[in-house]
């Protein structure tokens, strides 16, 4: 019999090394190499060649009906998945510990089971009584959800094979599973990858929609990583700060729907509640006018979303100015400050800058440049923007303000919430609000200085 090959696999990036070392050469993680064994093919099987079979080639046109979708009844969850879970698909849900992943999945399964009692929830982390306590707290104790506790992939598949194929199968969490086919500890990359592959194969063969819950690393990536994300059909992240009561479900990969879609929930004592108007939630009670704040009309996926950007420009007490950014890209802030100094002569790069997106929301789109610049100028000059004004637009290195996509949707959302005025890039048209068209950052400085 051939001897097993030994490799040391990094648990952060998945790269294999021939010998152990304290630091992974590929990703730089310390103490992340774990010994794993894999049996090589025997000499006879290694030399054996198999003739392939012919695969039928087809056209791009539909030859059957679109994929069957299973809507849970939770609108925000169904929005992010693209209109419901697809039969035979595998979905990976990641998030920080305690953010509410198990709560969200339990509520989704309970909502679906009221229409079709064919869902299975397998917990590998909590005992059955702990899951029942959570269900009772959320008022879901009577929901016809089939509950199990197991960590062996073979046991889970055998249990499923003995009964009816469930419409939805949820595994919480993938890091707790192990298979006897590998001599490795649960949670290692080899075990996570193999367990995921077995469950994805079950989903494709049976037509069940499988939801896998996964933990994230300190870098915010799903532990056991990119190899797992490639195996599944959709990857969702459940985000939220412990100091805030809302949670955001974000799609980063979806083979059956749009990516960058978000769903907003509010954490309460009775579980997660859907937020139908997230713009009002993120804006909060904006009473009075305060210098250094600007309302940004953004787009998250297909949803317009208004949020407040806050800035504070203060004298620097140290040799190098301080920069503190929450909810936005620090590199983007440095670029905006450089453009304001070079193109508008504002002269604030030598001062301490603090910038925050209210409510803990994280903004990634470039259209937030103009709102951030407006907040910085407002704080520097001490002049507040009008309370009923929204701002959006991308700033180029030349100082020009460039148009943003889906301007109509942004302005309609602002008008719906009672805003009457907007600072927008030149060329933007709308019948909803009174527009102040901004061609470059110099025009923005002059406008806000005269406000």
Describe the fold and architecture.
By secondary structure, this protein is an alpha/beta fold. It folds into 3 domains: 5-42; 69-276, P-loop containing nucleotide triphosphate hydrolases (Rossmann fold, 3-Layer(aba) Sandwich), CATH 3.40.50; 281-449, Ribosomal Protein S5, domain 2. The chain has helices at residues 43-47, 75-81, 101-113, 128-137, 153-161, 189-206, 226-231, 278-283, 330-344, 369-381, 407-416, 441-449; strands at 5-10, 16-17, 33-38, 69-70, 85-86, 90-95, 119-123, 146-149, 168-172, 209-215, 234-239, 246-254, 262-268, 271-274, 293-300, 303-314, 323-326, 352-357, 389-391, 394-395, 401-402, 421-425, 434-438. Helix 9 (330-344) packs across helix 12 and helix 10 (369-381) runs parallel beside helix 12. It is globular, with a radius of gyration of 26 Å. Residues 42-46 have low confidence and may be disordered.
Based on CA atoms alone, the radius of gyration comes out at 26 Å
Strand order of the largest sheet: 8-7-9-10-6-11-12-13-14
Which CATH class of the largest domain applies here?
Alpha Beta
Helix content: 25-40%
In CATH, the homologous superfamily of the largest domain goes by the name P-loop containing nucleotide triphosphate hydrolases
How many helical elements? 12
Largest sheet: 9 strands, mixed
* Total discrete domains: 3
Taken as a percent bin, the fraction of beta residues is 25-35%
Alpha-carbon distance between the two ends: 83 Å
Oligomer: single chain
**Which topology of the largest domain does CATH recognise?**
Rossmann fold
Strand tally: 23
Average residue-wise pLDDT:
88
Give the CATH architecture of the largest domain.
3-Layer(aba) Sandwich
Morphology: globular
Low-confidence stretches: 42-46
- The SS-based structural class is alpha/beta
């Amino acid at each position: 019999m051939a001897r097993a090959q030994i490799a040391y696999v990094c648990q952060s990036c998945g790269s294999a090394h021939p010998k152990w070392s304290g630091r992974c050469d590929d990703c730089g993680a310390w103490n992340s190499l774990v010994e794993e064994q894999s049996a090589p093919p025997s000499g006879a099987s290694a030399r054996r060649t198999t003739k392939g079979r012919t695969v039928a080639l087809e056209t791009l046109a539909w030859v059957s009906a679109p994929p069957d979708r299973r809507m849970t009844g939770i609108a925000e969850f169904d929005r992010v998945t693209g209109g419901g879970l697809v039969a035979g698909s595998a979905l990976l849900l990641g998030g920080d510990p305690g953010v509410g992943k198990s709560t969200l999945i339990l509520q989704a399964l309970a909502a679906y089971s009221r229409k079709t009692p064919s869902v299975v929830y397998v917990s590998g982390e909590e005992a059955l009584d702990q899951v029942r306590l959570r269900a009772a707290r959320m008022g879901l104790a009577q929901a016809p959800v089939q509950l199990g506790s197991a960590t062996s992939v073979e046991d889970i598949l055998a249990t499923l094979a003995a009964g009816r194929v469930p419409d939805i199968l949820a595994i919480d969490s993938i890091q707790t599973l192990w298979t006897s086919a590998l001599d490795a500890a649960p949670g290692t990359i080899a075990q996570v990858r193999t367990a995921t592959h077995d469950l994805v194969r079950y989903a494709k063969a049976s037509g069940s929609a499988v939801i896998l819950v996964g933990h994230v690393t300190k870098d915010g990536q799903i532990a056991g990583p990119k190899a797992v994300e490639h195996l599944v059909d959709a990857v969702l992240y459940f985000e939220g700060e412990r100091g805030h009561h809302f949670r955001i479900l974000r799609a980063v990969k979806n083979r059956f729907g749009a990516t960058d879609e978000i769903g907003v929930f509010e954490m309460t004592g009775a579980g997660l509640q859907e937020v139908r108007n997230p713009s009002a939630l993120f804006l909060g009670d904006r009473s009075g006018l305060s210098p250094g704040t600007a309302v940004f009309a953004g787009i998250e996926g297909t949803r317009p979303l208004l949020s407040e950007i806050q800035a504070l420009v203060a004298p620097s007490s140290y040799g190098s100015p301080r920069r503190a950014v929450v909810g936005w890209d620090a590199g983007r802030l440095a670029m905006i400050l450089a453009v304001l100094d070079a193109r508008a002569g504002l002269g604030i790069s030598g001062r301490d800058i603090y910038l925050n997106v209210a409510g803990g929301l994280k903004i990634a789109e470039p259209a937030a440049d103009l709102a951030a610049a407006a907040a910085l100028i407002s704080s520097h000059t001490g002049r507040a923007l009008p309370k009923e004004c929204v701002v959006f637009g991308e700033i180029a290195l030349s100082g020009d303000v460039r148009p943003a996509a889906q301007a109509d949707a942004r302005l309609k959302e602002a008008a719906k919430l009672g805003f009457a005025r907007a600072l927008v890039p030149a060329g933007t048209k709308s019948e909803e609000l009174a527009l102040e068209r901004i061609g470059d950052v110099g025009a923005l400085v002059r406008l806000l200085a005269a406000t």
